[in-house]
Design goal:
Blueprint (H helix, E strand, L loop, with lengths): L1 H22 L5 H6 L6 H20 L3 H24 L17 H19 L5 H4 L8 H30 L2 H17 L4
Helix pairs in contact: 1-3, 1-5, 1-7, 3-4, 4-5, 5-7
Amino acid sequence: MVLGAFLGVAAGVLALGGLAKLRGPEATVPMLRALGLAGSPALARLLGLVEVGVGAAAFLVGGRALAAAVALLFAVFTVAVLRLRASGDAVSCGCFGRSSAPPTMVHVVVDAVAAVVAASAAALDAPGYLSVRPELPAAGVPQLVLTAIAVWLAVSVLTVLPEALVAARRVPVAEAERRARALRTFTVESPLP
């Protein structure tokens, strides 16, 4: 049941990324082109539709085939991000439409972990939410809430953290040290109420 919950989070991230591509496919087009594919809004939307369908079905139904599909998609995403990083093209990952971030090792790690989780769920035939819901407390509502929180955190890690890491690299070390000293001075010297 625990592996099914982790599969649910990976599937939720996949479905949310698909929804973002359906709403804003233009952010995914440059990434597709950088990978040497025919980048078009139609292809980005098709990818989004596949992600929504596979993610929602894997969350709700689970099972070997759907978990394997989630694993395959995240494995492809891992390779795609590695290729984007190697190419040096300055494009966003295209993962979450307009909320996408530069492709970083954070993407590689999260995508690879999601692929391993989904592959493990496929190997062990992890159940989906609908099959385990009758056994869950409060009709499965706490499980839904926890899954939604975990998906939100994972999406934040994939969108906000890479942006912060890229921004941090832009600030020269001397400037960062000056800001840190100024902050320490302000905290030490400021009078307490």
